[in-house]
Design goal:
The protein has 2 domains: 5-74, 434 Repressor (Amino-terminal Domain), CATH 1.10.260.40; 85-143. The protein has 10 helices and no strands. The chain has helices spanning 5-16, 20-27, 31-38, 46-55, 59-69, 71-76, 85-110, 120-142, 150-155, 157-162. The longest helix is centred in the middle third of the chain and has 26 residues, at 85-110. The two termini are 17 Å apart.
Length: 163
């Protein structure tokens, strides 16, 4: 269990304007359970994490949940950099251009439904560029639209590596 995730749960709840008691009622758990989640004493169950994301309007919290506490999330989610919305949008445009630049090469490699040994370096380069595009797209989705607890996450070096 990641010890920091509870801190982000508390920050998201407070930003959304809920007390522990009100959140507990919305999630169908006790206020003690909310306290235990926020103090990293108890692992947040998937269904409660999903409710937190929705009720707190905090997509970034869901990304953190998956990238910090889920082995599968750690394997498949690209690292992202937390930026202001405008910076995230510009970065996404740059990465979209890079994908456009490799589009023909990528199509040629995959047109025969197999990747030959000599094509592997180009294929891997294309996958790296596409993965960076995915990370940039996630950055836009979770970019703070207003002051949020995500700013706290972006200053924590251990979390920033995962983000």
């Amino acid at each position: 269990m990641n010890q920091r995730f509870g801190m982000f749960c508390a920050a998201a709840r407070k930003r959304a304007g809920y007390s522990q008691e009100a959140a507990a009622e919305l999630f169908g758990v006790s206020a003690r359970s909310i306290s235990d989640y926020e103090n990293s004493k108890t692992l947040v169950p998937d269904d409660i994490a999903a409710k937190m994301v929705k009720v707190y309007d905090a997509v970034w919290l869901g990304y953190l949940y998956l990238s910090l506490d889920s082995v599968v999330g750690q394997m498949v989610l690209p690292p992202i950099e937390v930026k202001e919305l405008s910076s995230s949008l510009l970065d996404l445009q740059v990465r979209m251009k890079k994908v456009g630049d490799i589009q023909l090469e990528f199509a040629e490699i995959g047109s025969d439904n197999r990747i030959e040994e000599k094509e592997m370096p180009i294929y891997e380069k294309c996958i790296t560029i596409i993965s960076s595009l995915i990370g940039s797209a996630f950055s836009v989705v979770i970019a703070p639209k207003k002051e949020s607890a995500l700013a706290v996450a972006s200053t924590d070096p251990k979390v920033r590596r995962r983000l």
